[in-house]
Amino acid sequence: MVVACPSGLLKKFSSTGVRSRFHLLTGVSGLLFVLVAGVYLFPRYHGPGWDLDHTFLPAHPIDHLIAAANKQWRTLLTQETHTLQNATAKYRQRRGRHPPPGFEEWYRFAKEKDAVMIEDLFDQIYHDLSPYWGIEPKELRRQASGFSPRIAVRNRTAIPIGHIGVGWMEAWVDLMATIEKHLPDLDMPLNGMDEPRVIVPWEDIAQYVAKDQQAAQQLLDPKDVAREYMALSDLREDDPNAYDPGFTNGGGMPYWYLARMACPPESPSRLSDIRQIDFAAPPPEFYNYQRLSQHGYLKNWTLSKDPCSRPELQFLHGSFIEPITVSTTAQLFPIFGGSKLPVNNDILIPPAMYWADNELYSGGNDNHGGRWSAKKDLVFWRGVASGGRHREHTWAQFQRHRFLSMLNATSVAIAEDTTNRAYLDFRLPDQAEYDLACRRGAAGQLPALLHHHTDLGFIGLQCFPDPGDAHCPYTDPYFELVPPVPMKLQYDSKYLPDLDGNSFSGRYRAFLLSTSLPIKGTIYNEWHDSRLIAWAHFIPMDTTYMDIYGILEYFLGYGDYPGHDSMAQKVALNGKAWAERVLRKEDMQIYIYRLLLEYARICDDRRAVLAYVDDI
């Protein structure tokens, strides 16, 4: 169990009974969805209803955030198309050009798989590919065909080139095999690392994107278009034209120094350099979350993850402090992977573990939790102390360590007992900002609440240098190891926080598909980001975690302050229903199929005139 304070202190909050670790999930999950429960009973998703079960006034800030997200979702659902003609019209309106060749066949494929056909759901594709319109097609083909590992498609067959560990290549090839007969010739470089690989300076990316914008908004006359992709040369066993992207480890400097060069020159992060943080007296940047929030709760999920707008992330997340591996290039080249930071230029595809359905990450295909009423009123988390290469002088800044400490009753009690309301690796939010009912009286109420409603802990401490076992000399005084718990048993709890590890969390899709409520804290982007709406499909949590206690109290209640358990249930079940409509394996096929049609067009010498126009 996580003790998150020197052992022996405040024994009354030790780990007997329900552990006081992460009650924050409880709060966040309830506000995700205020949709009517009947939605789940229909084979197709008919959209959110509205059923606020509050009995108090004035409304909580979370009420407003849920209402706004629910309205956004309703608006999104009105954009669904049901015919090829409507789909192509929406495409041209949103993308400014004709669809790529093969679009009609792709549309039939998607319809046969009962997909939700909303053009906005594919926005991530066009965000990722936009800079590549600034590179000449011949150069893109040279880069892609000379890189290993990759998947090559020739004559409607997907062929693996090179190797990736942990079964990722096998999973991606298996995914590609389900759509290979529809694909043109192409070469698809793959990232086999947890960490993203491409981070191009902002000045260069701005020029590349400008070329895309100039080329768009020019709908060609149908008689002037080309309708067939070019064929690529046959594969060779030993390619004499191997491509070297110029990967570097950054010379030992923090990854932050590389990342901030992808930010605009006038951005807050471009010149920010803060190596360490004292949570008792944090720098002004620490409070940036306030301008991104509505009375302390995130109102802009996208901006909250943006390192360019949040210089404080450099001392709050292991990816910027010291990743496990740094192997990155400032040269734009097309490489595909499962996640990236907002400043990276990798091209997103569904992660291998999402397609493989490993029970370690999903709990099994047929096990996503039972009835809400049978679940424990508990915030539950298990995992390793990953997130990067933490060391004795940096571990207190890493995201997983901070989160476990902040939801541990003992460490919170210590923080309450100090004049600066701070602990080794976190500080408590100002009461004037959140006005928590559990902090209006004597100290000890918040720790007691955590003690009864949280159960979080590390199953391994991943020390650097590695001592050879699951322990770590410099964190052992603060964290006790707990036994692992299979995913299928984690669904017995109502609230499931999801935190970044070395990159994204491979459990997120499974949490969304479960009958429990996920609470998400991340700075990483994934393929499905344009399909999910914060406060409607999941509960967003800021990387400072300053909002966690308010989220927790909102859903659990405290004293005379009523909780919102029924709202948490509605969010969880509606989130599950929506995920079952847009995050299926079929949706992964549909997404990568369309992505590769667009990618093949960008790599084609005739890309400016290559288009589908048979509907006109």
**Largest β-sheet summary:** 5 strands, parallel
Question: What's the total count of β strands?
Answer: 14
| Radius of gyration (Å) | 24 Å
What is the overall silhouette? globular
Beta-strand share of residues: 5-15%
Largest beta sheet: strand ordering: 11-8-12-13-14
Specify the number of helices.
22
**What is the terminal separation in angstroms?**
63 Å
Structural class of the secondary elements? alpha/beta
| Total count of domains | 2
Low-confidence stretches: 1-46, 49-57
What's the mean pLDDT score? Answer: 89
Helical amount = 25-40%
Q: Tags for this entry?
A:
3-stranded antiparallel sheet; alpha/beta; 2 domains; disordered N terminus; 616 residues; 5-stranded parallel sheet; single chain
